[in-house]
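Pasting as-is:
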Amino acid sequence: MTDFIFPIPTPSIKISGRSERFAVRRIFCVGRNYAEHAKEFGNDERDPPFFFTKPADAVVPSGAALTYPSLTQDLHHEAELVVAIGTGGRDILAKDATSHIFGFACGNDLTRRDLQAVAKSQRRPWDMSKAFDESAVIGEIVPGQSFSPDAAIRCRVDGQLRQNAKIGDMTWPVADVIAALSSHVSLAAGDLIMTGTPAGVGPVAKGQTCCVEIDGLPEAKFRYTV
């Protein structure tokens, strides 16, 4: 057994109906995977999927009270379907993709939008706008290998509906996303894929509560403390 000079905790997510937890290895996020969201930021909705990452320890559970992030005056919510990978692979074909899925969850890809805008204007990486502490609020994972395209995805801030779409509105369905991502990297058990957000993203202020809801999944909810 290898000895380490200090322990590193393993980020994990609760699995609905089970005592075991899902250990998180990596978090991949899909950019602009809903046509209306792409258009609201002036982008071409026909672009192929592209990816960015968050650290595994950015995960926080539903129900958390979070400190408002530093260095931003414009923190945005992004409601997303999260795919939990149970079996790894590389160059996975879309027709085989579902066999690699462990389950699904609600997620919120929190974004320091003002930092992202500056990074874009300077043609620099987005990392500090997307990969900051407590930037991935994720609900319980529900095991299963398929998800209905008719399921609604919504986001509410203090009860006000901000985002409202269907999973089937994705430009690139889950199987295509897995296939595309696995051509870039070898996927492994414990990987999460946040599959993109529909139109209607907007700010969450100090003191507000934000809740992502997807039909058939436990919510992903958090509150920013004052």
